[in-house]
Amino acid sequence: MTNLNDCKIITLKKIADKTRGNLTVAEQAIDVPFEIKRAYWIYDVPGGESRGGHAHKSLRQLLIPVSGSFKVVLDNGAEKKEVLLNHPWEGLLIVPGIWRTLEDFSSGSVCMCLASDHYDESEYIRDYGEFKAIYGK
Ligand code: T46
After folding, report:
1. Count of domains in the chain?
2. Which of 31, 89, 116, 131 has the smallest set of CB atoms within 10 Å of its CB?
3. Would you call 56 a catalytic residue per the annotation?
């Protein structure tokens, strides 16, 4: 079973400028504890809709709410934990073996995901029963 505490908030550098606004940076090896091979972002999520609802066998990801907010429900097959992401300078590291669901997207929110590997559908577990059988013990 994967330890839920291995999923953690990573605070990124925030360079504040009272006149021009703020800038946040995420750098591989400095802030992001894996080689970044892919970035994608989720946006225009209609009210009440959710994303995710699956686990990864090997992928590591950092989810950053670059705009707005959303909730991430993390599930290791035995316990669940909810994390609210609402600061663009904070990312949530999600390790393999965790069923994740993204919910409660605020209007106009954008979730940017930095991923440790290229897209590979065979690396997903999209069936919750299969996930429980593999990880829930
Ligand atoms: C995750 C959550 C947070 C691609 O072709 N390339 C890609 O890099 C991705 C991420 C997706 N796709 C295709 C696969 C599906 O046909 O885009 C379609 C939607 O993907 P999915 O249903 O997996 O989207 P989400 O939002 O449920 O999940 C995504 C990521 O797939 C997943 O890794 O952790 O965001």
Report:
1. 1
2. 31
3. no
Say if residue 137's pLDDT is above 90. Answer: no
Q: Which residue has the tokens 């090997």?
A: 58
| CATH number of the domain where residue 124 is located | 2.60.120.10
Q: Look at ligand 1, atom 3, and give the residue with the nearest C-alpha.
A: 52
pLDDT tens-digit readout, 37-68: 999 999 999 999 999 999 999 999 999 999 99
Backbone angles phi, psi at 134, to 5 degrees: -85, -45
Q: What is the pLDDT of residues 79-121, one digit of tens each?
A: 999 999 999 999 999 999 999 999 999 999 999 999 999 999 9
Residue tagged active-site, from 54, 56, 87, 118: 54
Question: Cα dist. 2→44, 82, 83, 97, 106 in Å?
Answer: 31, 16, 17, 6, 29
> How far is the centre of ligand 1, averaged over its atoms, from the C-alpha of 16 (Å)?
32
How many Å from the N-terminal Cα to the C-terminal Cα in the chain?
6
